[in-house]
Write a sequence for this structure.
């Protein structure tokens, strides 16, 4: 599969800042992929997406989107991308349909007409088709002031897809939405992705949202902390361990060495890492009676939080 | 090439139409636009006419009416452009700036849209003129209406230059008043400036509203006996100055505004 997004050594340092917001990051996104850019607030996600969508200038590095160079062919990149911003960028004075009509006219997809009735049949069909996918067909001609946060997000999905983009950028699209709206938004996005066959680039600080992606890239303090498939990340992130102790700790250490188990002395006893599903095999190899046994299997969320915390301490 | 130009024109038309659609949906804004000139022409113009305009050799209220038409178009368009800063704060401009069209198309579309919106204040001026029985002069007012787009576009271009220099929406709103109001007094909008000297005359010469007001009066009083009493410069000079101001403000303003948006 071809890379539709190629980022090499990207750096962004804001004018009034001493530290780079994005610090020499490189990654790629393949065609048709659902790629999640995961990180805590202030990690550099929005800065990165703003550069990729041509809204913000970069300090250094090279970026190619849909085969076009960001420095030389920004306009072509804009034609091939759709964006759902972190905060809705809708004109609340207009109706949902009027917002969409202005969008398609600006993108040159259809000629602008002052009234919906005067717009071409293809436009009407497309808008109805997408409104049906996200369940907004009843509200297309209503004023946006009456829309809930979830409805505005659905409208932004329709708007961003009207010009048939190859890549859809989503900057924390579920921010401010309740759990039900978040769930339905993802249902719609997955449906749209399947039906429209587009690449999705998502920034989020919700791990559960990123888990649905084909690949995840974790960014922290402007640097890429880890990347891979959700399964690979789980494997690398989650370290299973147990605390064990015995009256004769030296014998316990000797037995652990014999079994080839790595351990570390702590105030809570010996911290022993294990890789199997359960520590049963390791425990059955020990002859010495244990005075302490505490098994820890952190969730992916706990492991992610540990990684982020570790990153912030290191920086 | 033709396809690209067609796309840009289509986008320009859409952006301008958006401003008009917004205005139509905001009757409050339309009424405010109409009331503002009523105060200036009705109260200030009326008072000045009664107390100072007795023996100047022409209808002073008619002189003020022409100035007020120019000023209202000019200021309406300047203020309209400064709303781009507030729209940026509301995340409305993001949608425009990620679109595949020229930054000049975005700015020009916004200029044309705000110019149309400022036309509502013209209704206010004409209404108060009729109420105060100020002679509109038949073809004189028609000639003036023909050059109205010039006043709007120069005002809008000044607005874009201003927001290219200012980043804060509150400063931008206040600033629009600050850059327009002194021009109203110094550029001959309501007070004749043919006898201005020194720094006052210098300031008048560097203000775009001076040339726009004089251009308007040149068209309005064309062929009339009072022409030489009210018009200062040759209309050709006024047209050249207006085009120069528009081109300079638009290019500089667009460069500064878009650079500020991207280079943070």
């Amino acid at each position: 599969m071809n890379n539709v997004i190629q980022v090499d050594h990207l750096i962004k340092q804001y004018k009034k800042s001493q530290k780079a917001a994005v610090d020499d990051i490189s990654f790629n996104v393949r065609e048709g992929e659902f790629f999640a850019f995961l990180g805590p607030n202030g990690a550099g996600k929005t800065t990165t997406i703003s550069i990729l969508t041509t809204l913000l200038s970069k300090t250094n590095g090279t970026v190619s989107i849909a085969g076009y160079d960001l420095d030389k062919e920004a306009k072509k990149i804009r034609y091939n991308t759709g964006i759902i911003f972190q905060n809705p960028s809708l004109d609340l004075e207009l109706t949902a349909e009027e917002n969409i009509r202005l969008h398609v006219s600006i993108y040159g997809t259809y000629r602008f007409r002052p009234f919906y009735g005067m717009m071409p049949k293809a436009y009407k069909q497309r808008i109805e088709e997408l409104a049906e996918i996200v369940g907004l067909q009843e509200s297309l001609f209503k004023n946006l002031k009456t829309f809930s946060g979830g409805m505005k997000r659905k409208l932004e999905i329709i708007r961003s897809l009207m010009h048939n983009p190859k890549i859809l950028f989503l900057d924390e699209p579920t921010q401010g939405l309740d759990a039900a709206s978040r769930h339905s938004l993802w249902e719609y996005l997955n449906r749209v992705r399947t039906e429209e066959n587009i690449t999705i680039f998502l920034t989020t600080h919700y791990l559960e949202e990123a888990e649905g992606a084909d690949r995840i890239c974790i960014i922290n303090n402007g640097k890429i902390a880890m990347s891979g498939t959700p399964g690979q990340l789980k494997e690398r992130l989650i370290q299973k361990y147990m605390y064990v102790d015995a009256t004769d700790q030296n014998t316990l250490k000797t037995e652990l060495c014999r079994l080839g188990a790595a351990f570390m002395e702590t105030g809570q006893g010996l911290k022993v890492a294990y890789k199997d599903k359960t520590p049963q095999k390791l425990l059955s190899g020990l002859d010495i009676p244990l005075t302490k046994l505490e098994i820890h299997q952190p969730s992916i969320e706990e492991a992610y939080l540990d990684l982020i915390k570790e990153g912030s301490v290191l920086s | 090439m033709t396809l690209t130009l067609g796309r840009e024109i289509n986008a320009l038309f859409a952006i301008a139409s958006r401003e008009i659609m917004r205005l139509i949906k905001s009757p409050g804004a339309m009424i405010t636009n109409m009331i503002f000139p009523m105060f200036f022409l009705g109260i200030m113009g009326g008072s000045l006419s009664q107390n100072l305009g007795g023996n100047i050799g022409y209808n002073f209220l008619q002189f003020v009416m022409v100035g007020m038409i120019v000023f209202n178009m000019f200021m309406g368009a300047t203020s309209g452009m400064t709303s781009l800063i507030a729209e940026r704060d509301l995340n409305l401009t993001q949608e425009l700036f990620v679109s595949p069209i020229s930054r000049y198309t975005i700015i020009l579309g916004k200029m044309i849209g705000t110019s149309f919106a400022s036309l509502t204040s013209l209704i206010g001026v004409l209404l108060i003129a009729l109420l105060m029985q100020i002679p509109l002069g038949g073809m004189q007012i028609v000639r003036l209406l023909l050059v109205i787009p010039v006043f709007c576009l120069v005002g809008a271009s000044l607005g874009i230059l201003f927001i290219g220099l200012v980043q804060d929406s509150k400063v931008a709103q206040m600033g629009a008043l600050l850059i327009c109001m002194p021009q109203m007094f110094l550029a001959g909008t309501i007070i004749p400036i043919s006898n201005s000297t020194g720094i006052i005359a210098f300031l008048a010469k560097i203000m775009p509203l001076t040339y726009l007001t004089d251009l308007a009066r040149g068209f309005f009083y064309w062929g009339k006996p009072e022409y030489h009493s009210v018009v200062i410069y040759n209309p050709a000079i006024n047209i050249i100055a207006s085009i120069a101001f528009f081109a300079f403000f638009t290019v500089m303003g667009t460069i500064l505004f878009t650079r500020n948006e991207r280079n943070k």
